[in-house]
């Protein structure tokens, strides 16, 4: 069987990482085309990795290339909607990094376009669905190991974001991971959300930026979720997820590190970026996606509907933050059969 031919739109940090993954880690894949809005950027990355592919300056040309079977969208967030729509309209299986789009309206347009095919064509890059530790947590929740979940305690700390990474990006790019993840882990929609501004870090000099912040969500059955988001944390990349149930607690493990005993101290390292923390999840995610679409089967990972749920919730979170922590009620339509049928 011939290798599946992939085109990547957007060769930034994550795009470059996926370029390497799809050419060096995932079997039976050829990256035949790349595209970036910055002239020469994609070709420079091809040269750095020692790869050859068609370098397009316009993503429409990549999408329409008959030598591209699958489109991977890793462009800037504001371009996701138009690129995904073009890929679907061209009949290409599509992988889109999160968020699916910047607002719920654009996500719904993508859903309507995908539904025309009668089967799924798209997967959204919520890679934590593939992280073994989260998969185990979901299995334990589903198997009633801790009884009914009552609340969750989470943090998402990151030290690698630039000054221009503002409050909206803290929600749409950072907190959206937990917004999606908790919906998946608990299998429930959200009833409401609020975002509380707290005392700012001195690393923030711009009054338009709130960092850190607290995101509080309540599910339809009354499970309360408490999430700390801190994108200019000084000490490292730190992810926490505790699920507190009637009979016990599930605690997300930290990444194993070799402990050091030296100079009367005992210490372990803390990771400094998301890539090292979730690299295996990205590998598993793409392997699963490519295994399906390479034989013309629908992808089974996070769907456009998951992207829509996350977008609606993120929209409400931004409204709450703008209104000094006001509770925003949420009401989702019933999940279409299109996204529940296997």
TrEMBL record:
Pathway: Polyol metabolism; myo-inositol degradation into acetyl-CoA; acetyl-CoA from myo-inositol: step 1/7
Enzyme Commission designation: 1.1.1.18, 1.1.1.369
Lineage: Bacteria, Bacillati, Bacillota, Bacilli, Lactobacillales
Keyword Transcription tagged: no
Catalysis performed (reactions): myo-inositol + NAD(+) = scyllo-inosose + NADH + H(+); 1D-chiro-inositol + NAD(+) = scyllo-inosine + NADH + H(+)
Domain Gfo/Idh/MocA-like oxidoreductase N-terminal: start-end pairs: 5-126
The species this protein was found in: Lentilactobacillus diolivorans DSM 14421
Keywords on record: NAD, Oxidoreductase
Domain of life of the organism encoding this protein: Bacteria
GO biological process, one term: inositol catabolic process
Its job: Involved in the oxidation of myo-inositol (MI) and D-chiro-inositol (DCI) to 2-keto-myo-inositol (2KMI or 2-inosose) and 1-keto-D-chiro-inositol (1KDCI), respectively.
Name by which UniProt lists this protein: Inositol 2-dehydrogenase/D-chiro-inositol 3-dehydrogenase
């Amino acid at each position: 069987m011939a290798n599946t031919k992939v085109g990547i739109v957007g060769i930034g940090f994550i795009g470059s990482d996926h370029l390497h993954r799809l050419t060096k880690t995932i079997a039976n894949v050829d990256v035949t085309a790349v595209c970036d809005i910055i002239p020469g950027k994609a070709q420079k990355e091809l040269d750095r990795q020692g790869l050859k592919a068609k370098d397009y300056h316009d993503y429409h040309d990549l999408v329409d290339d008959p030598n591209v079977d699958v489109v991977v969208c890793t462009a800037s967030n504001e371009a996701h909607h138009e690129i995904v729509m073009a890929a679907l309209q061209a009949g290409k299986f599509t992988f889109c990094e999160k968020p699916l789009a910047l607002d719920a309206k654009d996500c719904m347009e993508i859903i309507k376009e995908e539904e025309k095919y009668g089967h799924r064509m798209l997967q959204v890059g919520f890679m934590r669905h593939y992280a073994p530790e989260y998969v185990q947590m979901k299995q334990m929740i589903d198997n009633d190991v801790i009884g009914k979940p009552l609340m969750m305690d989470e943090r998402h700390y990151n030290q690698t974001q630039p000054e221009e990474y503002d409050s909206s990006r803290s929600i749409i790019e950072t907190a959206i991971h937990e917004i999606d993840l908790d919906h998946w882990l608990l299998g429930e929609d959200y009833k409401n959300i609020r975002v509380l501004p707290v005392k700012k870090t001195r690393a923030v000099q711009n009054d338009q930026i709130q960092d850190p912040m607290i995101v509080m969500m309540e599910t339809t059955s009354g499970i309360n979720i408490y999430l700390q988001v801190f994108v200019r944390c000084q000490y490292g990349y730190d992810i926490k997820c505790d699920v507190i149930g009637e009979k016990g607690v599930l605690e997300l493990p930290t990444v194993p590190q070799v402990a050091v005993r030296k100079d009367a101290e005992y210490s372990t390292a803390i990771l400094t970026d998301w890539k090292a923390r979730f690299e295996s999840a990205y590998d598993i995610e793409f392997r699963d996606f490519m295994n399906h679409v390479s034989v013309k089967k629908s992808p089974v990972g996070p769907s456009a509907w998951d992207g829509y749920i996350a977008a609606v919730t993120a929209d409400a979170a931004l409204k709450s933050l703008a209104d000094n922590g006001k509770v925003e009620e949420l009401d989702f339509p019933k999940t279409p059969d299109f996204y529940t049928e296997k």
